[in-house]
Amino acid sequence: MQIIVCVKAVPDTATRIKIASNGQKIDQEGVKYALGPYDARACAKAIELRDAIKGDSKVIAIASGFSDGERDAKKRLKDVLALGADKGVFIADPDPEHRDPLSVAQALAAAIKAQGKWDLVLFGRQAVDDQNLAVGPMTAALLGVACVTDAVALEVTGDKAVVTRAAESRTETIEVKLPACVTAQRDLAEEKYPKLKDILGAGKKPIETFAFAWPAPAWEVKKLSAPPPRQAGKIVGEGPDAVPKLLELLQSEAKALTF
Amino acid sequence: MAGHAFRGEDFFSLDDLLSDEERAVRDAARAFVSDKIIPIVEKHHRNATFPTELIPQFGEMGFLGANLHGYDCAGVNNVAYGLIMQELERGDSGVRSYCSVKGGLVMYPIFSFGSEKQKDHWLPLLAKGQKTGCFGLSEPDHGSDPAGMETKAELKGDTWTLNGAKRWITNGTIADVAVVWARTKEGIRGFLVEKGMKGYSAPPIEGKFSLRASVTSELVFEDVKLPKDAVLPKADGLKAPLMCLTQARYGIAWGAVGSMMAVLDEAVHYTKSRVQFGKPIASFQLVQEKLVEMHTMLTHAQLTCLRMGRMKDENKLKPHHVSFGKRNNVRSAREVAKLGRELLGANGICDEYQVGRHMCNMESVYTYEGTHEIHTLVLGEHLTGIAAYK
């Protein structure tokens, strides 16, 4: 079984995002990049599935993005190789900051097709930088296969996968024929820590380059704005005596509670 | 990795000087510490217990004897090894002590001075966390002056008989093997003493107010009979245990950085959110001055460590460099923890916050593995050529 996992380099979750003075980019000063938390779960699941399936199974990680510096997407492929993936595929993108999701999906779909046989493509449900939640489903559409989003459980039996997904106030269990795409929620797998030996071994695993002719962007980001600063809090009283007033204000003013 | 939301202070962008592998090792250790150690360490510190369930996990990650090669050890370079010690001590000095004693003082001497049989038997078990080790050099009456040791081993026929006592031994009570240094006819030699041997006991030292999440013990040897091959064949004289201590002290210098990172992080967050006189206390000059002092000491220590690590990887690091790193960084970490405690006010004395634990831990670290004063004299000797401690 050939499992593909698509990942993106995103600012780590400790980063405080600042907007550059031209209002069009993120200020890169002090920003560190990492695998996003959803991508990390997708990787962990891909490796878990490979290890559970007997025979010649492989995990291939694919990423597009910058080819050097802190944002180098190859570093994130190395992270996935250290977690246990067998091969990385890197798609150089000279301008990832202005890339729209459809273009990224086109690049990924082309790179996936170039791998020959593939059975399952995993994505994080969203990249935690631009939060589009679009690339996974778009790639599935371009590949002409089903996409099950927000998976919290995934089992593969023969040429089918049973996926449990988180829907509003319920879970859905879906059987889907392979090949298919699945996007990962946090609960899909426990996050794995790379072992030191595997970090050292990752440098010896192959990272292939896939050339892609990027189309003109389908959209243009005009402006980035920071969210408005948080308003100062209000102290309604102290101790248990303040609870009725607090409940009243949470209901009437903040509209955070409905009874 | 998602598990760690910790961003250590890196004022001079030292991350830019780390290889991808070194950063990946640091990040893996950082996530492990955030997820597995920090949530449980307060309870262990309060109850004076060591989290033994972490030992096999340390082994699985490759933290034990990480800079040794072969025998199931990870084989990372010395900068990566230092970064692991830094992150572990960001969790707790006691937890870091477990790993650095095991790597620097148990696995290193077996690796460097042991027979192939000793290495093949012990190193994989210790590396995987299936067995624990301790190092017996200090004695109740001989700390800074190990040459005065009283523990003795006598060889008759094919049997060594060991008598004496060791004290202040990290991991002692839980150790499956003790690397014990004893006086013999031929000078000081090292021995592997196994748990359960007749006449060998390792009672814990109770009532510590420092390194509470770590086991500290006494080792007692009463006519312990050891086979002839229990001796470390290549360890000859006091130089051997001192070489081990240089390894462990190198890790301590990095560990002190981790403690300072934890304390500074907590102090900055606390002072920005604690409001007095209508504004966050971080806006007061007296508070900022303390934060800046803490930050300056941390940054100096980080620069020292990275340079030491690069020199160690180039085989240029000398014991006096390590004395500098241990002395400077631990003194700073002790001071930083104290300033952090002051900034947290009364909250600083409760274990809901980390600073008090780090402050108490640093009292041990200041004194163990070569006291601050002995390292001062090592550096004094380096400058003057005169050994004041002889």
Description of the structure:
The complex is a heterodimer of chains A (259) and B (390). By secondary structure, chain A is of the alpha/beta class. Chain A has helices spanning 37-52, 73-83, 101-113, 135-143, 196-202, 243-252, and strands spanning 2-6, 9-11, 33-35, 58-65, 87-92, 120-124, 146-157, 160-167, 170-177, 180-184, 207-209. In chain A, α2 packs across α5 (196-202). Chain B has three domains: 14-127, Butyryl-Coa Dehydrogenase, subunit A, domain 1 (Orthogonal Bundle); 133-230, Butyryl-CoA Dehydrogenase, subunit A, domain 2 (Beta Barrel); 239-384, Butyryl-CoA Dehydrogenase, subunit A, domain 3 (Up-down Bundle). The longest helix of chain B has 35 residues, at 239-273. The N and C termini of chain B lie far apart (51 Å). Helices cover 51% and strands 14% of the residues of chain B. Chain B is α+β, with helices and mostly antiparallel strands and 390 residues long. The A-B interface holds A 12-15, 32, 34-37, 40, 75, 78-79, 82, 186, 191, 193-197, 199-200, 202-203 and B 1-7, 15, 20-21, 24-25, 27-28, 31-32, 60-63, 66, 74-76, 80, 84.
CATH topology-level name of the largest domain in chain A? Rossmann fold
Please state the overall shape of chain A, judged from the principal axes of the Cα atoms: globular
Our measurement of the CA-to-CA distance between the termini of chain A, rounded to an integer number of angstroms, reads 51 Å
Radius of gyration of chain B: 21 Å
Roughly how many Å apart are the termini of chain B?
51 Å
Spans where pLDDT lies below 50 across 5 or more residues of chain B: none
Order of helices and strands of chain B: HHHHHEEEEEEEHEEHHHH
Give the number of DSSP strands of chain B: 9
Specify the structural class of chain A. Answer: alpha/beta
Instruction: Please state roughly what percent of the residues of chain A sit in beta strands, choosing from under 5%, 5-15%, 15-25%, 25-35%, 35-45% or over 45%.
Output: 25-35%
CATH class of the largest domain in chain B: Mainly Alpha
**Average pLDDT, all residues of chain B:** 96
Fraction of residues in β-strands of chain B: 5-15%
